[in-house]
Amino acid sequence: MVSCLASVAESVAENYVKKIGGKDALRVFRALRVLGESTDEKISEYTGIHLNTVRKILYELYEKRLLFYRRERDEESGWLTYYWRIDLSEFDSHLREEVKRLMRNLKEKLKYEESNMFYVCPHGCERLRFEEASENEFRCRVCGEMMEYDDNSKVLEGLRKCVEELEKFINKE
Ligand SMILES: [Zn+2]
């Protein structure tokens, strides 16, 4: 199972990248994730985005501390080559704020799941709380099928683990 924090961090980072540089920036970011450390030319080739645009995006993302680079000088020509890579270590403070916000929703969801019993339509039309399902004598309001009790212990377990993991992250040094 992918860790809850890792998937949250990834989606927060991607939203941030998109906000900074739009869809092309997101494509560059994802290309770096696939390729690992790369030059601007390699990223341009991989994404089909014009080299100048790739360079502009790389600098923008670097300024926001989402990327870092390593330089190498060619001994014969004296040319510098930049090798870019994703590094989210300085991105933590932004991430922490986002996670704090997310935590409120997550805790509400957990409380909601803990304090209710659920019924679900076998065709997947809807999932209702016991009170709502009983009002319609446990028949699906969409297709009329009898609804079944939905054991949410797996959902609860997942939510609790996620809350625990995110809380650790928020509270760490
Ligand atoms: Zn149904």
How would you sum up this structure, described in words?
- This protein is of the alpha+beta class and 173 residues long.
- The protein folds into two domains: 4-87, Winged helix-like DNA-binding domain superfamily/Winged helix DNA-binding domain (Arc Repressor Mutant, subunit A, Orthogonal Bundle), CATH 1.10.10.10; 92-171, no CATH class.
- The protein is 58% helix and 13% strand.
- The protein has six helices and five strands; from the N terminus they run αααββαββαβα.
- It has helices spanning 4-35, 40-47, 51-63, 92-114, 130-135, 153-171; strands spanning 67-73, 80-86, 118-120, 127-129, 148-150.
- Strands 4-3-5 form a three-stranded antiparallel β-sheet.
- β1 and β2 (80-86) form a beta hairpin.
- α1 packs antiparallel against α3 and α4 runs antiparallel to α6.
- The model has no long low-confidence stretch (mean pLDDT 92).
- Zinc ion binds at residues 121, 123, 125, 140, 142-143, 145.
- Zinc ion is lined by residues 121, 123, 125, 140, 142-143, 145.
List the topology elements.
Layout: H1 4-35, H2 40-47, H3 51-63, E1 67-73, E2 80-86, H4 92-114, E3 118-120, E4 127-129, H5 130-135, E5 148-150, H6 153-171
Antiparallel strand pairs: 1-2, 3-4, 3-5
Helix pairs in contact: 1-2, 1-3, 2-3, 4-6
Zinc ion binds near residues 140 and 143.
> First CA to last CA: what distance?
26 Å
Stretches where pLDDT is under 50 for at least 5 consecutive residues are none
Biggest sheet character: 3 strands, antiparallel
Q: What helical percentage do the residues reach? A: 55-70%
Question: What's the oligomerization state?
Answer: single chain
Number of domains: 2
Order of helices and strands: HHHEEHEEHEH
